[in-house]
Specification:
alpha+beta, 8 strands, six-stranded antiparallel barrel, about 40% helix
Length: about 220
């Protein structure tokens, strides 16, 4: 009985799609708060001072900088899912609700691109980062009113700039980490490079199998000519 080349091709294609789909599933990562990083305080009208800006974290043991998407503590260690730009466009993310969910991330991603990611900052640069974080809080939820008039003016300007970038492609700017804790809206934006997702060894096994099958087909064709 001869080998049906079409059936072999379909088999290989189907197996490839299954394995590639498996590889695309992001494994949970461990996020651990390490310290204040370059974040600084902002004075508010009602809540005293709040801390905002880039904090120091580790992602599976690798040092990184990240900011919180809400005015809440980052302290602790938790499991999270890394979401890329494509993931957010496809509906992932804690704040991706309704038709304008992806726009929130686009505006936040644009603002994130303005941050100074240096390990040490001047007071002015640290304050700017904190105000960027403050505007991101406002985009994603709510914020306490600032006390300083100059800071309020800068916040208004940042909001206008964000509104003009509702379609911003932040794929080369940041990674979104969504906490896996049930019922907790905890999410962080971290600087790239993102965590690399290892390719399962099954893909390498599949590659060897595919080469072997194509070798058989080639030999059969050569023998029949």
């Amino acid at each position: 009985m001869g080998i049906n080349i079409k059936n072999i091709t379909r088999l290989i294609t189907g197996a490839a799609l299954i394995l590639l789909g498996t590889a695309a599933i992001a494994a949970p990562v461990e996020i651990s708060y390490q310290g204040a990083g370059t974040s600084t305080s902002l004075n508010t009208m009602t809540n005293g001072s709040v801390n905002a800006g880039l904090s120091a974290i580790t992602v599976d043991g690798t040092n990184s900088l990240a900011l919180n998407t809400s005015n809440s503590t980052m302290a602790g260690t938790w499991s999270a899912t890394a979401n890329s730009y494509t993931d957010i466009q496809n509906g992932a993310g804690k704040y991706n609700r309704g038709r304008n969910g992806a726009e929130k991330y686009a505006k936040a991603g644009y603002l994130f691109s303005l941050l100074d990611n240096s390990e040490s900052l001047s007071d002015t640069a640290a304050k700017f980062n904190a105000l960027v974080n403050y505007v991101i809080w406002d985009i994603m939820g709510s914020v306490p009113e600032l006390k300083d008039k100059r800071e309020k003016t800068l916040v208004k300007d940042l909001k206008k700039r964000a509104d003009r970038n509702k379609r911003f492609d932040w794929s080369t700017t940041m990674e979104v980490y969504s906490a896996n804790d049930r019922g907790i809206t905890r999410e962080f934006f971290a600087v790239l490079p993102p965590i690399a997702t290892p390719i399962p060894s099954a893909l390498f096994l599949f590659g060897s199998m595919a080469l072997g099958l194509f070798g058989i087909v080639t030999r059969k064709r050569a023998a029949s000519t």
